[in-house]
Write a structure and sequence with these properties.
64% of the residues lie in helices and 0% in strands. With 107 residues, the chain is mainly α. It has one domain. Helix 2 crosses helix 3.
């Protein structure tokens, strides 16, 4: 069985960002584990861009003008939500990519 080595524990803060760093540094061992980490990270990035685009459609009002602090909080919240969505979505983009890349291995 393949292992993740020194990769961050699943679901922790910055989990998928840590997975990308672990991929770059070669800390994730085994093709299956590396592919799973890469597809999860890609799905997380997709969700993050989706949340950002959706948020831009909401008109700004004077009620919630938090400035830079609010912008930073929203960016961090979107990052966290995208990581959670990517790891908990069944049949999502990450799994579809994983199946597509492994389709030739099963025959």
């Amino acid at each position: 069985m393949t292992g993740v080595g020194d990769a961050p524990s699943a679901g922790g803060p910055g989990h998928l960002q840590g997975m990308v760093e672990a991929l770059r540094e070669g800390r994730i061992q085994g093709d299956e584990a590396r592919l799973r980490a890469a597809t999860d990270a890609l799905e997380s990035a997709f969700f993050q861009e989706l949340f950002k685009a959706m948020r831009e459609t909401v008109p700004e009002t004077g009620l919630t003008g938090g400035g830079g602090g609010e912008d930073s909080f929203i960016a961090l919240m979107d990052q966290h939500l995208s990581e959670v969505a990517a790891t908990r979505t069944e049949g999502g983009l990450g799994q579809a990519l994983y199946r597509w890349f492994t389709r030739g291995e099963e025959g």
